[in-house]
Design brief:
This is DUF397 domain-containing protein. Pfam families: DUF397 (PF04149). InterPro entries: DUF397. The chain has 64 residues and is α+β, with helices and mostly antiparallel strands. It has 1 helix and 4 strands, in the order E-E-E-E-H. The protein has one domain. It has a 4-stranded antiparallel beta sheet.
């Protein structure tokens, strides 16, 4: 997975040491924490889109 082009979140620290990174793959989307780059989570594009939409709408983390 080292050949992937990782993109840093715009909400990350300026130093880039504490961020979420995303890479587009043919089979889906890869996500990782910059502090632990060897640990990669891969999900489908539809699931990733649903996650982003939930984050934008504030429906995640509501405790309900």
């Amino acid at each position: 997975m080292s050949a992937l082009k990782w993109i840093k979140s715009s909400y990350s620290e300026a130093s880039g040491n504490n961020c979420v990174e995303v890479a587009w793959m043919q089979i889906g989307v890869a996500l990782r924490d910059s502090k632990r780059p060897a640990t990669v989570f891969v999900t489908g594009r539809a699931s990733f889109g649903a996650l982003i939409e939930s984050l934008r709408s504030g429906s995640l983390g509501s405790g309900h």
